[in-house]
Specification:
With about 170 residues, the protein is α+β, with helices and mostly antiparallel strands. It has helices spanning about 1-30, 40-65, 140-155, and strands at about 70-80, 80-85, 85-95, 100-110, 120-125, 130-135, 165.
Length: about 170
């Protein structure tokens, strides 16, 4: 029995560091990553919420038009919008400016002390829409269909063949 414990002790002494590194590595692999998948999910949710907000605004506006009555709008999105944030970039290098030996770049998002989310947006790309469906009480009248189609086209950039206006039942 003593021979086995001495053998195990020798193995442990020889491979203890490798075993500890392997255990720490396995623990880090199993550790939940901070925002690995949540950033994309949050971006998709914010894009979906933005489209939903636009749909609600369009319903409010279209509902005030003459002859439209009660209205429901559905927009299908081809691509979500995007905001590009201002970046403060610092480039450092060693050696001569003509042929640097080594360089590094560090970027930080520019933040403000004001209201809102505190970021500085340099460019906003709005969503592109695939199509629109508008269901309204006056959808059986040609003049209402034309007015609603023109309004939706001007708000979304969709051509008339991608907008359908139907009568509310």
């Amino acid at each position: 029995m003593k021979g086995k414990t001495e053998g195990v002790r020798k193995l442990w002494d020889r491979y203890k560091y490798a075993a500890m590194v392997a255990l720490i590595g396995a623990g880090l692999l199993l550790w939940p990553s901070g925002n690995g998948g949540t950033e994309k999910t949050l971006r998709q949710q914010s894009g979906t919420e933005e489209v939903r907000d636009i749909q609600e605004e369009m319903e409010d506006i279209l509902g005030t038009m003459s002859g439209v009555g009660q209205v429901k709008v559905m927009l299908t999105v081809d691509s979500d919008g995007e905001r590009q944030l201002a970046q403060d970039t610092e480039l450092t290098y060693s050696g001569s400016a003509e042929s640097p030996e080594d360089y590094s770049r560090r970027s930080e998002t520019v933040l403000t002390d004001g209201e809102g989310d505190g970021t500085v947006v340099t460019r906003t790309l709005y969503p592109t829409y695939r199509g629109a469906l508008v269901v309204c009480q006056g959808g059986d009248r040609a003049d209402v269909r034309l007015a609603v189609t023109e309004a939706v086209s001007s708000l979304t950039g969709l051509s008339a063949d991608r907008i359908t206006v139907a009568k509310w039942q």
